[in-house]
Specification:
Elements (H helix, E strand, L loop, with lengths): L2 E6 L7 H9 L4 E4 L8 E5 L2 E5 L12 E4 L4 E2 L1 H14 L7 E4 L3 E2 L2 H13 L11 H9 L12 H19 L7 H17 L3 E3 L1 H9 L3 E8 L34 E7 L2 E3 L12 H9 L12 E3 L1 E2 H11 L3 E5 L9 E10 L2 E3 L7 H4 L1 E8 L7 H14 L2 E6 L7 E3 H7 L1
Parallel strand pairs: 1-10, 1-11, 2-5, 2-10, 5-7, 6-8, 7-9, 11-15, 14-16, 15-19
Antiparallel strand pairs: 3-4, 12-13, 16-17, 16-18, 19-20
EC number: 6.3.4.4
Enzyme class: ligase
Cofactor: Mg(2+)
Length: 417
């Protein structure tokens, strides 16, 4: 059975939600393996917009089921909101959602900590203040809570007393949460999940199921935001690359394909290096045409030209086998399109960054290509061929609009031209 991972090939916001939604009809399981509510995957179904921050991008009335893996940090309150929205239009859809008991929870005080820490920093890192960093910090420092803690009330109470005692010592009067209030909150959320008929299981219980059916793994954000290999410290707190499937009990060697989603240009939300950022008027033109505002934060995204060294880096780091290009229609009508083909790193020309440090110091070296009036034009086909030649990866599909169905294979496009 086919197992495919879809990850962002840039700094996130490439349109993975739509891409996963498009392919999901061919898979029995859609598995989200990392991240939390700081990621927003926008999909359109029956002309209605849905923004999922935690739910995998399944087609709600299909036979596909969704699994939230142990690599995630789950804000249960946000998850319930998303389920209730879907239940309004697709009654019973929650019964197709499975949550790994090993997944960690984002608690209300994590969001408070997120804001406090950001305000205390001399140079803020641009967190979404969704509590993701503090939740992952608690996970690593062994002060976190897993989903299974919801089903042992005595253990939950005991841990809440210990951990909140410690946090009050650290944060002092700023920390105003009480163990009994967090316990009541969690029990209330648990009852809501049970009423929605959400399933609780584990990757161990699902191991044989996943290996005897088709699975589409959905990544969050993009390779360049990976905790280990992204532009640290301006990264997220978890795994954004295909190796994150290990949290669901899989090896990358078990994957048939790793599809990297990229925009025809590049965007980034928040602080951090961005070698091809375009600060002139053309950047604002692309931002407005592409509606480049964060699905989670609403913040204007920084905009720049396509960065081939970054894509080559993503290819090697995450084992990308094919590309899917999105938002090429945003560049329609431009006379010229710039593409970064290499970096000048301290007078050394590099086609592939040696480490994430090169993103901080690299100066882009550009080539200029002819623009196109629309994506059915030969110049757009030449643009894709240029990307393929320079990265060594085939582009299999093109997304040319926000709707799920506004997508086609490259071969279909060639036939039109």
């Amino acid at each position: 059975m086919e197992r495919v991972a879809i990850v962002g090939a840039q700094w996130g916001d490439e349109g993975k939600g739509k891409v996963v939604n498009y392919f999901s009809k061919g898979y029995e399981w859609i598995v989200r393996f990392s991240g939390g509510a700081n990621a927003g995957h926008t999909i359109y179904y029956n002309n209605k917009k849905y923004v999922n921050h935690l739910l995998p991008s399944i087609i709600p009335n299909s036979n596909s089921k969704a699994f939230l893996g142990a690599g995630m940090v789950i804000d249960i309150e946000q998850l319930i909101k998303e389920l209730e929205i879907l239940e309004t239009d697709f009654p019973g859809v929650s019964s197709k959602i499975y949550i790994d008991l090993e997944a960690f929870m984002v608690l209300p005080y994590h969001k408070e900590e997120d804001g406090i820490l950001e305000e205390l920093r001399k140079n803020p890192i641009g967190t979404t203040r969704k509590g993701i960093g503090p939740a992952y910090t608690d996970k690593v420092s062994r002060e976190g809570f897993k989903i299974y803690h919801l089903f042992d009330e005595d253990l939950l109470k005991e841990r809440l007393e210990e951990i909140i005692y410690l946090k009050k010592k650290i944060f002092g009067k700023r920390f105003k949460f009480k163990p009994k209030d967090i316990f009541s909150f969690l029990m209330n959320q648990k009852r809501k999940l049970e009423k929605l008929n959400v399933n609780f299981t584990s990757a161990i219980d699902m191991a044989n199921v996943f290996r005897n059916t088709s699975v589409l793994f959905e990544g969050a954000q993009g390779v360049l935001l990976d905790l280990d290999f992204g532009t640290y410290p301006f990264v997220t707190s978890g795994a954004t690359m295909a190796h994150g499937v290990s949290s669901v009990g899989f090896s990358t060697f078990e994957l048939d394909e790793v599809l990297g989603v990229l925009k025809a240009y590049t965007t980034r939300v928040g602080e951090g290096p961005f070698p091809t950022e375009e600060l002139k008027e053309i950047g604002e033109v692309i931002r407005k045409k592409g509606n480049e505002f964060g699905a989670t934060t609403g913040r204007p995204r920084r905009v720049g030209w396509l960065d081939l060294p970054a894509l080559r880096y993503a290819k090697l780091r995450s084992g990308l086998t094919k590309f899917i290009i999105t938002k090429a229609d945003v560049l329609n009508g431009l006379d010229e399109i710039k593409v970064c083909v290499a970096y000048n790193v301290n007078r050394d020309v590099k086609e592939i960054p040696t480490s994430s440090y090169d993103f901080f110091v690299g100066k882009p070296i550009y080539e200029t290509l002819k623009g196109w009036p629309d994506t059915n034009h030969i110049n757009f086909l030449k643009y894709m061929s240029f990307i393929e030649e320079k990265t060594g990866i085939e582009i299999s599909h093109i997304s040319y609009g926000p709707k799920t169905e506004e997508m086609c294979s490259k071969n279909d496009l060639i036939m039109k031209i």
